[in-house]
Backbone:
């Protein structure tokens, strides 16, 4: 009557898979299109007299967004928010810039919004006023782009993450080490697998794990336990900056990402683990799965913190951006306030009219109250 | 206090300067006011979605939304419900509300015959969120089962409704989603009689079991004991308790009243039947201890659902959440395959006739026959035999 849904079945129904998963080619094409569109638009607003405005290149746009993904991480850490808030916010920012250019919406103005949105969707509670105060921003600045962000996210808010499944892998590895698990084919003997696991060759040079083979003699149960824990923590570290500041979420599934991280941590242990899981898969799919995991691992391994823009580089890029950005989206706060003024729903027109009448009326009364002004203010009053 | 890392980010430009740059640029370089506004793929898609529907009459309104019926412009025979989120004064303190974000987040991920279908979301020019939902014209289960003047139902009907609810719950849990607000008024009924779990405004994911959660969710009548005792860590079993909470005929007004009722009907939670319970922060029980109620006691109250039904009920209403059945275990229980079999959809009781039903004729798909007076036509020989009435479905959910 029920059959358990596999992680894969479930993943394939997710919006992350349906809307936010790409091949490397389609991802590159989408980003290029967004960048080109922004340049095209820029030709309209920046046909400068001296005509030498320099625009951000696509590469520069990417680097700037990456820098703000890192900013999201440090800000989330500052609030001591759980990692799922951080990961969700980073994906929101990444997804936002798949269809928006930094020329139109500089990330400096968007990142606070995505982080607050992620805080809400990941069930972490903080009021807007406290959030705004602690990042020294005005509340309106946080809220103004919220609908724009929702729209760019295509109203999908769930971000599937590899953290839970990595914990699951840790549990399975520990159970294997205890001799508690048979192979996937059903007749595998727990003790036999345990023995094989003790014989797994040591992690080669360059592995991310801190664990070292004790040297002489065989690995004992306790050392195996340590090895698993060390592989887990090394993999967990890879799920932070390397996974969040590269494109792996857009290109791979959460289980591929966690297996890639484990592989970088301790390759022989991971391939043993995979052999217990992929036992049943046929000779065609198996190499495919392994190749995908390796490709993901390569991408994680290629990341280095030094790739993230320094503060100076960022400032220089933003100065450049300031000269070439789209002026029509410059004041989001004002646009947002105007939107709110219009009130709710289709009655907008009526509400606007009533407001105007009220305004005119109060202006008249104001005039009466303070006597007729000698110089009428040009606009409808100062500030107001 | 540590300095905020956000201080590292260059401050916004002062507003007047922004203004100035903006106006200069636009006055200088935008000679053509009709040049296309900023547009991107996502906003284009949003506009497209919005223009697909023609809004009709209001279907109802809830705490934070108005619901309208609407038709597809391309095919006016297709009806949907558009739930327009109200923007209240609290928006200033939170922006888009937690409730609407949760509803959107989870419904976007869930596709199941017994869970309300979210077709799309779009926003309007005034930044209102609109959820395009499947149209469920038959009201909710609470209204149906309370309409005892016109409707009666059999044990087979109960089983059919429960089965659909449990399938929906199972699917949520498979997706690591807790509904946390399962109750009859959140079960809407489709034109074909199917039950649809709706209102995910309180849902959350339980991806990380080590993250504390709030305990004062779930209307108290459907709230499992671990939440009364303020457990910070709970799981899928909260929905199971709510799902089969049929036994409480009374509607206490206080939490303590509800705890008392649970103690009386199920038994008092103690260390022996629920190890660790006395260490929960909010653990308080009436001083007089009621031992766990035995099978025979339950059977007296729930004869209509048969022995297997009573067995299942007891296992769903087990005090200790660790021993309570999961949705998966519930679905594997013998109750569903025991006699009587669950009613077929077309045999389930419907909402009474009248003007409303006439209006809804328009929504019926071809070939469907309207129910006569909600009594299920002539099929209901067994209906109203009084047996089913023994179960007070005021508390189903
Ligand atoms: N999909 C739907 N089809 C038909 N009517 C609906 C639908 N969803 C909601 N309604 C009607 O609108 C009312 C309010 O909707 P609800 O989702 O409960 O809003 P809230 O979340 O604000 O409580 C419901 O009681 C019901 O009458
Ligand atoms: Mg409601």
Residues:
């Amino acid at each position: 009557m029920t059959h358990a849904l596999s992680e894969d079945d479930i993943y394939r129904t997710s919006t992350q898979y349906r809307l936010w998963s790409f091949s490397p080619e389609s991802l590159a094409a989408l980003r290029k299109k967004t960048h080109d569109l922004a340049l095209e638009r820029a030709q309209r607003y920046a046909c400068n007299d001296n005509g030498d405005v320099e625009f951000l290149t696509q590469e520069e746009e990417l680097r700037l967004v990456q820098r703000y993904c890192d900013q999201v991480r440090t800000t989330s850490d500052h609030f001591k928010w759980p990692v799922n808030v951080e990961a969700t916010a980073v994906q929101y920012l990444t997804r936002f810039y798949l269809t928006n250019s930094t020329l139109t919406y500089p990330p400096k103005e968007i990142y606070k919004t995505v982080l607050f949105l992620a805080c809400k969707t990941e069930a972490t509670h903080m009021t807007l006023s406290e959030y705004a105060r602690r990042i020294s921003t005005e509340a309106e600045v946080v809220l103004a782009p919220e609908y724009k962000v929702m729209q760019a996210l295509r109203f999908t808010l769930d971000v599937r993450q590899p953290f839970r499944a990595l914990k699951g892998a840790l549990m399975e590895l520990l159970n294997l080490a205890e001799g508690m698990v048979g192979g996937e084919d059903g007749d595998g003997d727990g003790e036999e697998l345990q023995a094989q696991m003790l014989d797994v060759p040591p992690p080669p040079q360059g592995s991310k794990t801190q664990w070292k083979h004790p040297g002489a003699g065989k690995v004992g149960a306790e050392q195996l336990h340590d090895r698993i824990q060390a592989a887990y923590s090394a993999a967990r570290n890879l799920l932070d900056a390397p996974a969040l500041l590269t494109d792996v979420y857009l290109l791979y599934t959460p289980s591929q990402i966690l297996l890639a991280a484990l592989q970088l941590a301790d390759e022989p242990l991971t391939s043993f683990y995979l052999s217990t899981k992929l036992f049943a898969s046929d000779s065609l799919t198996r190499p495919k799965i392994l190749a995908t995991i390796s490709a993901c691992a390569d991408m994680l391994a290629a990341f280095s913190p030094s790739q993230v823009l320094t503060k100076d580089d960022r400032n220089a890029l933003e100065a450049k951006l300031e000269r070439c950005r789209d002026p029509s989206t410059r004041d989001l706060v004002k646009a947002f306030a105007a939107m709110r003024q219009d009130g709710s729903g289709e009655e907008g027109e009526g509400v606007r009219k009533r407001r105007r009448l009220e305004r005119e009326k109060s202006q008249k009364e104001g005039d009466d109250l303070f006597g007729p002004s000698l110089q009428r203010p040009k606009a409808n009053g100062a500030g107001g | 206090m540590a300095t905020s890392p956000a201080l590292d980010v260059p401050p916004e430009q002062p507003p007047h300067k922004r203004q100035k740059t903006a106006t200069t640029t636009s006055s200088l370089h935008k000679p053509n006011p009709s040049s296309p506004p900023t547009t991107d793929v996502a906003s284009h898609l949003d506009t497209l979605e919005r223009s697909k529907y023609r809004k009709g009459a209001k279907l109802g309104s809830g705490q934070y939304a108005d619901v309208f019926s609407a038709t597809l412009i391309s095919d006016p025979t297709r009806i949907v419900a558009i739930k327009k989120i109200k923007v209240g004064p609290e928006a200033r303190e939170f922006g888009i509300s937690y409730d609407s974000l949760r509803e959107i987040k989870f419904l976007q991920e869930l596709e199941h015959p017994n869970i309300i279908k979210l077709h799309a979301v779009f926003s309007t020019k005034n930044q209102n969120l609109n959820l395009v939902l499947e149209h469920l014209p038959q009201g909710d289960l609470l209204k149906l089962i309370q309409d005892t003047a016109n409707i009666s139902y059999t044990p087979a009907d109960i089983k059919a409704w429960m089965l659909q609810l449990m399938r929906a719950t199972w699917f949520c849990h498979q997706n690591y989603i807790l509904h946390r607000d399962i109750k009859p008024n959140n079960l809407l009924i489709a034109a074909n009689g199917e039950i649809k779990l709706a209102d995910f405004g309180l849902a959350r994911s339980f991806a990380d079991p080590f993250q504390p959660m709030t305990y004062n969710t779930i209307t108290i009548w459907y709230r499992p004991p671990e939440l009364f005792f303020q457990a910070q860590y709970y799981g899928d079993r909260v929905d199971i308790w709510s799902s089969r909470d049929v036994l409480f005929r009374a509607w206490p007004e206080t939490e303590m009243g509800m705890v008392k009722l649970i103690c009386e009907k199920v038994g008092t939670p103690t260390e022996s039947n629920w190890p660790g319970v006395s260490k929960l922060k909010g653990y308080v029980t009436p001083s007089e201890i009621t031992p766990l109620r035995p099978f025979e006691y339950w059977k007296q109250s729930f004869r209509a659902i048969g022995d297997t039904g009573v067995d299942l009920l007891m296992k769903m209403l087990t005090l200790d959440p660790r021993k309570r059945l999961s949705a998966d275990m519930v679905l594997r229980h013998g109750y569903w395959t025991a006699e009587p079999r669950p009613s077929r959809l077309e045999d389930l009781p419907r909402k009474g006739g009248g003007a409303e039903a006439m209006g809804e004729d328009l929504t019926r798909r071809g070939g469907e026959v309207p129910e006569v007076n909600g009594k299920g036509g002539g099929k209901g020989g067994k209906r109203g035999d009084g047996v089913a009435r023994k179960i007070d479905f005021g508390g189903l959910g």
Observations:
- DSSP finds 20 helices and no strands in chain A.
- The two ends of chain A are 65 Å apart (CA to CA).
- The pocket of magnesium ion (ligand 2) is lined by residues B 62, 199 (CB under 6 Å).
- Chain A has two domains: 19-159+308-338, 163-305.
